[in-house]
Design a protein that fits this description.
single chain, 1755 residues, mainly alpha, two-stranded antiparallel sheet, disordered C terminus
Length: 1755
């Protein structure tokens, strides 16, 4: 059996003779070596920019001499050409990959020599110990197939019984492989590399399936080497792309999308667990069993049944649908979290049980009496404590079941669960049976030595179980399955179980961190959290209520169990607090460890050593400049050139004025010498001495904070340990990859000087001038100097008179005086460089090119000085082109507007070396479909007649590559155009600086590859083989931090996570890849699936998957402190929350992913905890926070109901609990209230502790003064409100995603948030997120405050206020009186429009969008050009909806329902039982019943009258009919609220509680109906318009017209209630803002809070003509009157009946009610003034000791 990679005793020289291969297609290498003219027309090397220089330069100079290289460029070119002929690769792919390979070889050869460069590159791609192909080759057992044949081998890698072959051990086979790889000729190695790269270069989306690519490469390689070159070889039937790549692409595409009858691509209505994604496809190729599933369509033979050399021929005939299957089910369930983080839950729940059960002895004490305070028996207590072990086993049972559910048993990599199940069953029996015997088969007060011995044994076993299952990874329980058999689970070991182990300090730090965290946590939680509930548990568990009358149907069943319900709520709340507490301690200790690290490396401002600036020149010379004796110039001269370049670059960016430049640069001064001679000396700037350390005591940088910050950071980082840089010639090449979607390329003049829209009150340019006043002045002065140079006839522009200043006014207004294209472009660029544009990003990162040129000039000074200046510049430019490339991948290039195309051309003219990758769409007449091409252009490309540039490369793709969420596909398609050994991933809103780019060589040293001179195929593989460094993270400076409170808060979050947390996480192995500005090992990442993952929705946070993938496959991830990039962040409330929603939803998807499963079940405990709390734990923590708030308020409401109707005992903590309670018959509820108060105080502390990381980070790097200032400004700007709201957004996004799967890519606007958002937009966006939930909490808290006021309830009022007011508080100009009332008109229009014709923004559209989250949307076709309300939404699983959306709501409803029943249970009265349930049913279901009848009565109007009227004289009649119907529904709901109030005898507190319960019941009913009975929503709104217009026949619904009226009827019933709620809620929210609106100067105060601009710098409102201003003012006044009238009418309708009852007596309504309603009235009972807390004060001191003594005597 032949295979090119046959490992035992392979010798490849026979078929790798490059000369014979060359002869096949007419190339004669012998003659070509002497005369290359025959290949001139076959030039593969990339020219472009290289061809623009005056002199000729070889693009690969280290590979120029044939005598010094192992294989000449000509031979390499021949190999590429022949591979093209054999496999029909595309010519552009051939040229692109030739350049790709040569750039890699040139980069490596520059520092390690050509021979080692080729060998090491081959080792990294194909044969080295860390090569992914090698791992796959042995993992899939193809080495055995090549040597022995699968027919002779069993699946576990051993020889079959009657096989004549002996299977070599894995170590022996790998040693032979290494010997063979080491013996490969350079020609063979080049063929391997070229073939792999060509397959990769044309694989488009299949690049994300790395092991599939390995399989394809091996098939190609076997086929290539099997060719008999002496005979003619038939040309393949189809090109490589169509032969194998397109079928695979088409299979995946069909999994995600379907094609309708119009040929439109629509997403499939299925979730991840039914989609065969990239990972499922990839894992087929891991195992031999998977490969044996690959069968042909015609013969049904497996691909492995063919000899290796014949497999490639049959690849096009494979039936992939039969081969692929799900290898992991990403089911939308929380079971993933139970499985993945099983050990986290085990630790917390078990310890919580131990703590709580030990301190709750009354629950298992027989006949407990507080006067005796009798304790349980030792055996009972130990048995109860031992239940912790049972809980641990129970959690593991769930985890085992979950793994069986998620990992299909037919996947070869699935671990056998039978051993785990059996051992768990044995442990469960041993653990549970004795506990059951002790607690349930014996009396609790029975004491026996035998029982005691059993209980002791059980307790010890329980502790052992907790320790074992908490420490040992779930995947390694009872022995790791990966260690079973040498080859059985080798793929899982290589691809999911190769996480690098921590060693030395890193391991010690990781373990030490978590020891500190849990030691602190367990001590604090026991004494503060657990002991605090001891008294509450004792009182509630022994409290007996025997005096309540109860309810008609249930009697006193629930009433008597109110203490038990409170106890359950108390334990639930305490458990969540116990879980939250760990995250608190993690923040504290992570911050402390990070500070210690910063001190140790000297990055802190508080470091004990000084002289950061005075030693800066020496540090620049030693750490930045690599002299190596290559130049005879003094170090001072070299440093001066570099330092002056940095200062001048800041001047060119207008950060410094010319005066500042003169003070900061080295200058040549003439010093008089002897005998009338003089000499020039280099004078060092006094800056280095005057700026001792970085205290900056002088006023040098006054007004130039950005320059100060950059120079300070540069000086500070050079004082820290930095890896040594290598010479510029030896520097590895690298690329910067920038994915671009729709971000601004550059700003147009119109965008700069014109208001954004009618809601904006200032222009962008004016705002930028206020933010950067000094930079604007520098820009103007520079422009004036330029104008003076152009027009030298004018006098100096330094003017002093008023007239002269007026002449200069245009400069200071728009930046120019003469509107020439050049001056306009300067202003546009100035503004673009101060906003988040692509131009800023490209300009910033092109500093890499400038830095390389500068370093080349400095380090080759002697050579440069001896040459002419032009050649010197050319050589520096050539060096920059060799070492650096920037690729911008423009996803929407073909959809660019003319303005965007002009901006793109501006970029290319400014930076001709910039590479722009884009997708080209072209209709193919032959194929009858669109064809897609990956193209690349730069500034050297020819401009065609249509204005477009001719691409350098144009590679046809299998189809549209954007089949995911966009960014990952955009990155993936551009990867083939990157060059070099490393890639830096950048977003299109970042920036970089020259001084930081100078340190890029130092960061490359972090990859630990630069000084490698060892043979990569050394035989001793087990020694000195560290895991390769895959990713290096860098710091980010958020340049939008000073734009206002929101920008500063967003910047603070990035700062703490990207720097402070990353510093510690990188050390302890918890850091992953977060996209930017990380450096990636190009070979490592591209051979393992790319730089991100791209399955739609699942990989929404695409970058982090690349980090997890790298970690699982053995890559290390590091973090550098000495290099930073600029980063822009979202600045507006809406855009920040869009980003937050994306991250929260993406986390929901991550928790479903297989990467979380692999990491969660295999990481050691310390690594798991770091991974969990740095990622999923943060989001779950946000969810737990709001769960805690809900539980607290629900608990408080139920407690308030009990306190309100109870006689509360006097209490003092120093009085023994055995004392009699006073007064008699009282309930000691004070201890429960005190527990509530203590917990609220702890929550407040936790909230403020969350600010610690930012504060500490500021203190360590900027000093305590700036830290206090920054934090004070944030707090004064109500940032706490914003933090609360963001926390809610995180929680809501995660929950919604886990229940409905609503994750989608959200494009976040990164512009300045200076535009006022309409109220309707804010309400529709945030009502379902926070406003509706806040309203329920408001009613519960109102009831609690009325019934049981405590000061700590202010915290909950604060939280609810934050949830309600935040969207409006952070809306620019929200409280400007005129804008406020003009906006009210839009709000009313939003509420009522959209019923006659389609409206883009309307209340009905908002309701339909919310409903579609439950029902999904139909995939039916829509009319061409029709307006669409909804996107494609999948219908969520019914089970998920019932468990999450309905189940949680039902639980909340039942808790509130119980509180309401108890409030009406009439404790201590002799009244009759009341029918509370019927009252609640009438008030909850009555409005719905009335709406049902109302809609039936009005339906004839819409069916008969509406079509006639709307078609003839009154087109808006349907809207009027809808408005009337909804207003009647509003009145209907107000009526029933008044009925409820009346039934409660006008008692406000209980009425509020009843109304809250009624709202919850209605909402629960609507959710049930929507989830279970409503079909999917149409994407258009024709059904709604047809309902009101009656035009069903002409609605275009087809046969759906038969079913849709019934569905729409149910929808309209629900909408009636929803409209009433929204209408009232909208007016309440507006009313709450009225006091703020009427506050004098509120708009200026509000702008100061948002933008941090003092009133003197705030811009005045937009000026309108007097007529327009008067009209707006009049409209605002009329609308204010209308608002007050509508509001007054609502208030009158709500409180009018109450006023009437006061005037005419309470019986005026009751006497006139029908008899059937009499039973619904709450009986009027005697009000005991001693009930509740109103007449009760909690005693904190005993001033009269006689009282104490008297009580003791009574005892």
């Amino acid at each position: 059996m032949f295979s090119a990679l046959k490992t035992p005793f392979i010798t490849t020289g026979r078929w790798a003779d490059i000369k014979r291969v060359g002869n096949l297609y007419g190339y004669d290498p012998n003659s070509a070596l002497d005369d290359e003219s025959s290949l001139l027309n076959q030039k593969l090397a990339e020219g472009g920019i290289f061809d623009t220089f005056d002199n000729n330069y070889d693009p690969y100079p280290t590979w120029a001499s044939d005598d010094e290289v192992p294989i000449s460029k000509l031979k390499i070119q021949i190999i590429f050409n022949q591979l093209q002929e054999i496999f029909h690769f595309q010519p552009s792919n051939i040229r692109n990959m030739f350049d790709y390979l040569m750039k890699l070889l040139d980069s490596r050869a520059s520092r390690m020599g050509p021979h080692l460069a080729l060998q090491s590159l081959h080792a990294d791609y194909i044969g080295g110990i860390n090569a992914n192909f090698r791992k796959w080759y042995f993992a899939s057992q193809l080495d055995l197939d090549d040597s022995i044949g699968f027919e002779n081998i069993s699946y576990n890698g051993t020889a079959k019984r009657h096989s004549p072959y002996t299977v070599p051990m894995l170590s022996v086979a790998q040693k032979r492989w290494t010997e063979n790889m080491n013996a490969l000729s350079p020609d063979d190695a080049t063929v391997h590399l070229a073939l792999y790269l060509l397959c990769w270069g044309e694989a488009n989306n299949i690049r994300m399936i790395p092991e599939c690519l390995c399989f394809i490469f091996k098939c190609c390689n076997d086929y290539y080497y099997s060719l008999d070159l002496s005979k003619s070889i038939p040309s393949p039937e189809r090109p490589f792309l169509d032969h194998i790549i397109t079928p695979l692409y088409q299979f995946h595409f069909n999994q995600m999308y379907a094609i309708n009858s119009k040929g439109e691509t629509i997403p499939r209505n299925i979730d991840h667990d039914k989609i065969l994604g990239y990972d499922d496809m990839n894992q087929l190729f891991w195992y031999r069993k998977g490969l044996e599933r690959i069968v042909l369509q015609s013969s049904k033979r497996t691909i492995l049944s063919f000899p290796p050399a014949e497999r490639y021929i049959h690849l096009h005939n494979i039936e992939w649908s039969r081969a692929f299957f799900k290898t992991y089910y990403e089911s939308r369930t929380s079971l993933h979290s139970v499985l993945n983080f099983n050990r986290v839950w085990s630790i917390h729940v078990c310890v919580f049980w131990l703590y709580t059960s030990f301190n709750s002895p009354t629950l298992y004490t027989s006949d407990y009496d507080y006067r005796r305070d009798n304790q349980p028996t030792a055996s009972a207590r130990l048995a109860v404590l031992s239940i912790a072990g049972s809980i641990c086993l129970f959690l593991n049972w769930i985890a085992v079941i979950a793994e069986i559910k998620f990992v299909p048993r037919k996947w070869p990599g699935a671990e056998s669960m039978i051993p785990k199940l059996l051992l768990l069953l044995i442990l469960t029996l041993v653990q549970v049976a004795p506990i059951v015997y002790i607690l349930f088969f014996n009396s609790l007060d029975y004491q026996d030595m035998f029982l005691l011995i059993i209980s002791i044994f059980e307790f010890i076993l329980s502790i052992a179980i907790i320790f074992y299952f908490s420490i040992v990874p779930f995947g390694a329980l009872f022995g790791s399955y990966m260690s079973k058999g040498e080859r059985t689970y080798l793929p899982s070991k290589y691809f999911t179980g190769s996480v690098p182990k921590l060693k030395g300090k890193a391991e010690l730090a990781s373990i030490g961190l978590w020891v500190c965290v849990f030691l602190s946590k367990f001590i604090e939680t026991y004494f503060f959290l657990t002991l605090s509930i001891r008294d509450s548990v004792r009182e509630l568990s022994t409290l007996e209520i025997n005096t309540c009358i109860g309810e008609t149907y249930f009697g006193d069943l629930l009433c008597k169990r109110q203490p038990l319900i409170l106890l359950v709520l108390l334990f639930s709340t305490d458990l969540i607090l116990f879980l939250l507490d760990t995250y608190l301690w993690f923040i504290i200790w992570n911050t402390l460890f990070s500070v210690c690290i910063s001190f140790s490396i000297g990055i802190s401002i508080l470091t004990p050593w000084r002289n950061i600036f005075s030693r800066l020149p020496k540090r620049i010379y030693s750490k930045i400049i690599n002299d190596n004796g290559s130049t005879s110039m003094k170090s001072k001269q070299l440093v001066s050139q570099l330092w002056n370049s940095i200062i001048i670059s800041m001047y060119r960016e207008h950060l410094l004025s010319i005066d500042h430049v003169n003070k900061l640069i080295y200058q040549q001064i003439i010093v008089p010498g002897q005998q009338d001679t003089s000499e020039q000396i280099l004078k060092e700037p006094t800056f280095f001495v005057s700026q001792e350390d970085h205290a900056l005591k002088t006023s040098l940088f006054k007004g130039h904070k950005e320059a100060e910050r950059r120079i300070t950071f540069f000086a500070q980082t050079l004082s820290t340990p930095i890896p040594e840089s290598i010479g510029i010639e030896k520097m590895p090449s690298f690329s910067v990859l920038i994915p671009h979607y729709a971000e601004k390329i550059s700003l147009s003049l119109r965008e700069i000087i014109k208001e954004e829209d009618e809601n904006s009150q200032l222009t962008l340019l004016e705002y930028l001038k206020q933010l950067h006043p000094a930079e604007w002045v520098n820009f103007v002065e520079d422009t004036k100097i330029l104008a003076e140079e152009i027009n030298s006839s004018e006098d100096s522009f330094s003017k002093s008179s008023i007239k002269d200043r007026l002449i200069d006014l245009p400069y200071y207004t728009v930046g120019f005086k003469t509107a020439t294209p050049e001056y306009i472009l300067r202003t546009r660029i100035w503004a673009s460089l101060r906003t988040q544009t692509l131009y800023r990003t490209v300009s910033g990162f092109m500093n890499y090119s400038r830095a390389i040129k500068l370093l080349h000039d400095i380090e080759n000074k002697d050579i440069a000085d001896s040459s002419d200046s032009n050649k010197r510049l050319e050589e520096a430019s050539i060096m920059a082109l060799r070492k650096f490339r920037m690729v911008v991948s423009m996803q929407r290039f073909h959809k660019s507007s003319p303005e965007q195309r002009e901006s793109k051309e501006t970029l290319l003219r400014a930076y001709p070396e910039l590479q722009i990758a884009y997708l080209e769409e072209r209709y193919c007449e032959d194929r009858g479909c669109l064809e897609y091409y990956a193209c690349l252009i730069d500034g050297s490309c020819e401009i065609l007649e249509d204005g477009e540039r001719k691409p350098k490369y144009r590679i046809r793709l299998s189809g549209n590559p954007i089949i995911g969420d966009g960014k990952s596909d955009n990155q993936n398609h551009a990867l083939i155009f990157c060059r070099g050994e490393y890639i830096q991933l950048i977003d299109a809103n970042q920036d970089n600086y020259l001084e930081e780019c100078l340190k890029v060589r130092n960061i490359f040293s972090e990859f630990e590859e630069l000084n490698s001179t060892d043979d990569p195929y050394c035989l001793d593989e087990d020694t000195n083989n560290p895991n390769p460094v895959a990713i290096i993270g860098a710091r980010e400076y958020i340049f939008s931090e000073n734009v206002g409170v929101l920008g500063d808060v967003a910047a603070g979050k990035e700062q703490t996570f990207g720097t402070l947390s990353a510093r510690t996480l990188a050390l302890i192995g918890g850091k992953l890849h977060y996209g930017h500005p990380d450096f990636l090992n190009s070979v490592f990442m591209t051979t393992r699936g790319g730089v991100s993952k791209g399955q739609k929705s699942l990989h929404l946070n695409e970058d982090i998957y690349a980090g997890m993938n790298a970690l699982l496959r053995g890559g290390r991830i590091k973090h550098s402190e000495y290099l930073q990039c600029g980063k822009g962040r979202d600045l507006g409330f809406g855009s920040i929350l869009n980003f937050t929603s994306k991250i929260g939803s993406g986390m929901g998807e991550q928790m479903l992913s297989r990467e979380y499963f692999y990491l969660g079940t295999q990481l050691p405990l310390d690594r798991l905890l770091s991974f969990y709390y740095a990622h999923a734990g943060f989001h779950l923590n946000n969810m737990f926070i709001f769960l805690t708030i809900n539980l607290f308020i629900l608990f408080s409401a139920n407690l308030a109901a009990l306190v309100k109707n109870s006689l509360v005992c006097s209490y003092h903590k120093n009085i023994p609990i055995t004392d009699p309670k006073s007064p008699e018959g009282c309930f000691n509820l004070v201890v429960v209230i005190l527990w509530l108060q203590r917990c609220v105080v702890s929550i407040i502390l936790v909230f403020f502790i969350s600010f610690i990381p930012l504060f500490v980070q500021e203190v360590t790097e900027r000093g305590i003064g700036k830290a206090v200032t920054r934090l004070s400004k944030q707090l004064a700007s109500f940032s706490i409100f914003f933090e609360v709201f963001v926390c809610k957004i995180y929680a809501n996004s995660l929950l919604n995603n886990l229940s409905t799967g609503s994750a989608k890519y959200i494009a976040t606007g990164r512009g300045f948030a200076t535009t006022r958002m309409p109220f309707s937009v804010l309400y529709s966006k945030f009502s379902t997120v926070s406003l509706h939930e806040a309203s329920i909490l408001f009613f519960l808290l109102l009831f609690t405050s009325i019934s049981m006021w405590r000061t700590v309830l202010i915290y909950f009022w604060f939280t609810i206020t934050a949830l309600v007011i935040s969207p409006f508080l952070f809306n620019p100009n929200q409280f400007a009186p005129q804008s406020f009332f003009l906006d009210y008109r839009k709000t009313l229009q939003w509420l009522f429009k959209g019923n006659s014709k389609w409206q883009q923004e309307s209340w009905i559209g908002y309701v339909r969008n919310n409903r579609a989250l439950y029902t999904g949307s139909k995939r039916k076709e829509v009319k061409l050009g029709e307006n669409i309300d909804l996107g494609y939404l999948n219908k969520p699983s019914i089970i998920n909806l019932l468990l999450t959306q309905v189940g949680t709501h039902l639980l909340k409803t039942l808790i509130v329902f119980n509180a309401y029943l108890f409030s009406n249970s009439q404790l201590n009265t002799g009244a009759l039982r009341v029918n509370t349930i019927m009252r609640l049913a009438v008030c909850s279901l009555g409005p719905i019943a009335v709406n049902i009848v109302l809609l039936l009565l009005l339906q004839p109007l819409s069916l008969i009258i509406a079509p006639l009227v709307s078609s003839t004289c009154w087109k808006s009649f349907p809207s009027v009919l809808a408005a009337i119907t909804r207003i009647l529904g509003l009145l209907n709901h107000i009526l029933f609220f008044n009925l409820l109030w009346m039934f409660q005898n006008w008692e406000l507190a209980t009425t509020v509680l009843g109304f809250c319960c009624s709202c919850l019941i209605e909402s629960l009913l609507f959710r049930l109906v929507t989830s279970l009975f409503l079909t999917s929503e149409f994407r258009h709104g024709r059904t709604n318009r047809a309902w009101w217009s009656g035009k069903w026949i002409t609605s275009g619904l087809g046969f759906n017209v038969l079913s849709q009226p019934v569905r729409e009827y149910f929808c309209k019933v629900i909408e009636q209630s929803l409209f009433a709620a929204d209408f009232i809620y909208v007016h309440i929210l507006l009313f709450l803002q009225i006091p703020i609106v009427l506050t004098p100067f509120i708009d200026s105060i509000h702008s100061l809070m948002l933008f941090w601009l003092p009133p003197s710098k705030q811009l005045k409102p937009q000026l309108f003509p007097m007529r327009n201003s008067k009209r707006k003012r009049t409209h605002a006044q009329l609308l204010s009157v209308l608002f007050l009238l509508i509001l007054s009418l609502q208030v009158a309708l709500i409180i009018g009946p109450y006023i009437i009852s006061i005037v005419y007596g309470n019986e005026v309504f009751r006497e006139n009610m029908p008899e059937i309603f009499q039973q619904l009235f709450q009986p009027i009972a005697y009000k005991n003034p001693n009930l509740g807390l109103k007449s009760h004060s909690i005693i904190t001191d005993i001033s009269n000791m006689d009282t104490v003594n008297a009580r003791k005597d009574n005892r």
